[in-house]
Write a structure and sequence with these properties.
By secondary structure, the chain is α/β, with parallel strands linked by helices. Helix content is 39%, strand content 13%. The strands form three sheets. It has a seven-stranded mixed sheet, sandwiched between helices. A three-stranded antiparallel sheet has the order 9-12-11. The protein has a two-stranded parallel ribbon with strand order 1-10. The longest helix has 21 residues, at 288-308. Bound molecules: pyridoxal-5'-phosphate. Pyridoxal-5'-phosphate binds next to loops.
Length: 388
């Protein structure tokens, strides 16, 4: 009998990958599946980015790079943050990561241990709660409510701070709800945090370029008074349809950058060199494909919200960002998990139970609308038929 570490029992998972595997298995049996489960753009990575990676390979970029990324890419990230948010970022504080996820893992490993408290959005990206528990810290949920459009309330977050709070994780625009936080709420949070100098903030802004109806993105790095405690998580996966490339970045406070860098050296050494050159092409090249993709998501968002609200027992608020709709489905009389299963097995529609994103996701389903309008309409038709 092999004995494995007990800590592994505390590690959760991301159900989206299991649903994807089941959907693929059903497809292999010849069943037709409309996949609104997995959260990734249904677009190809823009051609000039692919070409930059090919060129990098041809030019001989085959070796290790510095663990924190090539200087050219760290400079491009700093320039991009300046262009988008007017931020002055020292390229020396940028860390290139193999995707967005490693930043949350590293950040929680740096602050989390038994006795520490870490706040996280619930419903929220499932990996937050998973890695907090893994670290031994106590997860303290920030309950995101439908009546607030699933945006956090700064007052609520601040009221939960204790002397044991080490880290607060926020995410706007949000997965799985599409919730987007207003500037006023970000201002309130930043002002409130000034009174709690022992608390760090990790702001997951991976959907920052996917906002609708004229909403603006406010980066939590833009508050000078708390800047030395903010970790920014962002990346290429969603903005440039590059989920499979595994490329992300984080900006760290000077005081903990070395810890993050050491974790990188211990964990992955560096990100693939060619991928990093592709990342430069993405940030410095034309942005028209990004705009086209966001416009397509916006159109689909309108379609899916209106369609979902026509299903008996469903109620869906309009998401302000990202590419997810999060309808309440309590009126169907089924639990989120039962409905997820029924829709996949009987209707051939892959969606994710709200409970996969935390206990406050109970009664909801997540629909990713990174799929064509035609497929979205087909999915809703199938759901109506299945529930009638
Ligand atoms: N943060 C959020 C809120 C996400 O939804 C995701 C992916 O779904 C990530 C981070 C991770 O992104 P990546 O695929 O770059 O690791």
């Amino acid at each position: 009998m092999l004995q494995v570490a007990a800590s592994l029992e505390r590690l959760g998972t991301e159900t989206a990958f299991e649903v994807l595997a089941r959907a693929k298995a059903l497809e292999a049996q010849g069943k037709s599946i409309v996949n609104l489960g997995i959260g990734q753009p249904d677009f190809r990575t823009p051609e000039h980015i692919v070409e930059a990676a090919i060129k990098a390979l041809r030019d001989g970029h085959h070796g290790y790079t510095p663990a924190n990324g090539i200087p050219e890419l760290r400079q491009a990230v700093a320039a991009d943050l300046h262009k988008r948010h007017g931020l002055e970022v020292d390229p020396g504080l940028v860390m290139i990561m193999p995707g967005g996820k490693p930043t949350m893992f590293f950040c929680v490993l740096i602050f989390g241990e038994p006795g520490a408290e870490i706040m996280y959005p619930n419903p929220g990206f499932p990996i937050y709660e998973s890695v907090i528990k893994y670290s031994g810290a106590t997860p303290v949920p920030i309950h995101l409510k439908e009546e607030n459009g699933f945006a956090f309330s700064a007052e609520d977050v601040l009221s939960k701070i204790t002397p044991r709070t080490r880290l607060i994780i926020i995410n706007s625009p949000a997965n799985p709800t599409g919730g987007a936080v207003s500037r006023a709420e970000c201002d309130k949070l930043a002002a409130g945090l000034e009174k709690h100098p022992h608390v760090a903030l990790m702001s997951d802004e991976i959907y920052s370029q996917m906002l609708y109806d004229g909403r603006e993105h406010v980066s939590m790095l833009s508050y000078p008074a708390i800047r030395d405690r903010v970790i920014l998580l962002d990346g290429w996966s969603k903005t440039y349809a590059m989920t499979g490339w595994r490329l992300g970045y984080s900006i760290w406070p000077k005081s903990i950058y070395a810890h993050a860098e050491r974790l990188a050296v211990n964990n992955h050494s560096c990100v693939s060199a060619a991928t990093q050159w592709a990342g430069i092409a993405a940030l410095t090249g034309p942005q028209d494909k990004v705009r086209e993709m966001v416009a397509a998501f916006d159109q689909r968002r309108r379609v899916i919200v209106s369609e979902l609200n026509q299903i008996k027992g469903f109620r869906c608020v309009e998401p302000g960002g990202a590419f997810y709709a999060f309808p309440h489905i309590g009126g169907t009389g089924l639990s989120s998990r039962d409905l997820q299963k029924k829709l996949l097995e009987e209707a051939g529609v892959a969606v994710i139970s709200g409970t996969s994103f935390g206990k406050f996701g109970d009664g909801y389903l997540r629909f990713s609308y990174a799929n064509s309008v035609e497929n979205i309409r087909e999915a809703v038709k199938r759901i109506k038929r299945c529930l009638s």
